[in-house]
Amino acid sequence: MAKIGPSLMCADMGNLEDAVKRLDQAGVDFFHFDIMDGSFVPNFTMGPDMVKALRPHTNKVFDVHLMVKEPERYIDLFVDAGADMISVHAEATTHLQRTLQTIRARGIKAGVALNPATPLSYLDYVWDVVDYVVLMTVNPGFAGQKFIPLTYNKIAELHRIIREKQLNIEIQVDGNISYETIPNVLEKGAEMLVCGTSSLFKKDRSLEQAMEELHAFLEALPSSRLVEAGDTK
């Protein structure tokens, strides 16, 4: 089954500790932290102190998505705070290969994030230092945006490349991952779902109810709509 990662920028910021504990018990696979600097994207969110404060409350993977300029400057801060995975935007760093090597050298997984209009060719010379790719299916910066349909083709193409090259790289999708879009992104080859207001953080549902419904939805998807995990390796 696909991995579910709640986007904590969509949670109640006044009760994050409670949300993390409840989501942990409800069976999420990882926690996704959107780190924004107000420069690379037009918004500010979270920082290493928040990651560090939440780290004692769960053993689940902390996935840090750096939507910041010159992300290489902050890698040590977030690793020391408790990150298990860090993705950086190819558009935000001059030395992508070096940045990914730096992340891996700290003993955690390194990811490349690509904006919707950024071509997959940015990955051509870093395949050997990438553990996962984050495909943005909306333009980064704000929750609640509409899914960009052309990104379905991008997911499928990335999946094809990974399969042909026989790489051990996971595909994560981020942006309006809803009940409408989930079957299609999984069919195209996505494996990690960053879930926000479109599927998990609902005003009329408790976190437990929302997770139960999401798990049931994923389990009910016909196998013909899903890419076999073995096809991506």
Can you tell me about this structure?
The protein is α/β, with parallel strands linked by helices. It has helices at 16-26, 48-54, 75-81, 96-105, 151-165, 182-188, 207-220; strands at residues 3-6, 30-37, 44-45, 61-67, 85-89, 109-114, 132-136, 170-174, 192-195. The protein has a single domain (3-232), classed as Alpha-Beta Barrel (TIM Barrel), CATH 3.20.20. Helix content is 30%, strand content 20%. Strands 1-9-8-7-6-5-4-2-3 form a nine-stranded mixed sheet. A hairpin with a 6-residue loop joins strand 2 (30-37) and strand 3 (44-45). The longest helix is centred in the C-terminal third of the chain and has 15 residues, at 151-165. The protein starts with a strand and ends in a 13-residue tail after the last helix.
Q: How many angstroms separate the termini?
A: 16 Å
| Structural class estimated from helices and strands | alpha/beta
Strand order of the largest sheet: 1-9-8-7-6-5-4-2-3
Order of helices and strands: EHEEHEHEHEEHEHEH
Could you tell me the radius of gyration in angstroms? 16 Å
Helix content: 25-40%
Query: Architecture, according to CATH?
Result: Alpha-Beta Barrel
In total, how many beta strands?
Answer: 9
Shape: globular
Q: Find the CATH superfamily.
A: Aldolase class I
